[in-house]
Amino acid sequence: MNHDSFFFLLFRYTYEVSPVFLLVEEAVIKKMIEFIGWEEGDGIFNPGGSVSNMYAMNLARYKFCPEIKEKGLSGLPRLVLFTSEECHYSMKKAASFLGIGTENVYFIKTDERGKMIPEELEKQGSAPFLVCATAGTTVLGAFDPLDKIAAICEKHGLWLHVDWGGGGRKILLGAVADSVAWNPHKMLLAGIQCCALLVKDNSGLLKKCYSAEAAYLFQQDKFYDVSYDTGDKSIQCSRRPDAFKFWLMWKALGTTGLEERVNRALALARYLVEEIKKREGFQLLLEPEYANVCFWYIPPSLRKMEDGPEFWQKLHHVAPIIKERMMKKGSMMLGYQPHQGKVNFFRQVVISPQVSREDMDFLLDEIELLAKDL
């Protein structure tokens, strides 16, 4: 192993063994907190947005009943959480992993665009400890109405967590959320993995929740400021320096450069939408709110069929056939899925700064070519 490789494998739990990367992480966390509009806060980089969501769920539960850290689940009341039916599947996984149980995850109805309906949230009768909203859902790219959800959370004293892919101009997260999962490796296309949990509370809640006070690592009588020993506010001990990737990117591009990257992706998504509208056989699922472009391709043999059960049943099989052909040909990769009663459709999420209008044209041309005999 060369010295450069070893440099990046250094454990990151105390300042003394990894001073540079810990200071970089602190600087990046502060900048991220500033970006979303908080005056202060705390945070930690995690191996993926799913882990950040789990951190937030556990942190909200600890805030709701701190005794759980020592006494566990025994003797506690039934704990439930509310989230959108369009939420990321990691919320169910986190509930299972933390012993909350998937039956205690209440999925709130969404509207036709995939946004959580706040009025449905108010109707729920159980007493939750957490509401998880989504800013950019996985399939439709929908943004839950955060201000209305936040008002309900404030009224009932609930922790509001926002699962945010991240990217683009400031959106009003800071004023309403108790925690935010921000994943720069998504819309900003930082190198995987690069994800952080940001917490509005700056009283040391993260450390109180996760600290094990290992005396062989976290001595309180060190000669330096021990607040830099961030390992005791993480589930992990050894961690990769993921913040360093985002620090380098932010330094190289600047805030304006990052915003331009996202704006360009959104412009390309809009271009794809307009091209879909022009072409025979292509049909949008809905007008996109973000970079998620969802559409059907109706092959020649189905274009004269009446809109009915038989038509939709046949259309359901089209996307998988086209996907198989593109993969075997090696021409491109495009996802598809059914969703909320709708048959299989394609989903193109435009995020790469390297794609162009020509690439969007190729995508549509290739679908037509692969399906010309269907």
Automatic annotation (TrEMBL):
It comes from Strigops habroptila (Kakapo). InterPro entries: PyrdxlP-dep_de-COase, PyrdxlP-dep_Trfase, PyrdxlP-dep_Trfase_major, Pyridoxal-P_BS. The gene is GADL1. Pfam families: Pyridoxal_deC. Its cofactor is pyridoxal 5'-phosphate. Keywords: Decarboxylase, Lyase, Pyridoxal phosphate. GO terms for cellular component: cytoplasm. Belongs to the group II decarboxylase family. One of its GO terms (biological process) is carboxylic acid metabolic process. This is Glutamate decarboxylase like 1. The modification N6-(pyridoxal phosphate)lysine is found at residue 186. PROSITE patterns: DDC_GAD_HDC_YDC. One of its GO terms (molecular function) is pyridoxal phosphate binding. Homodimer.
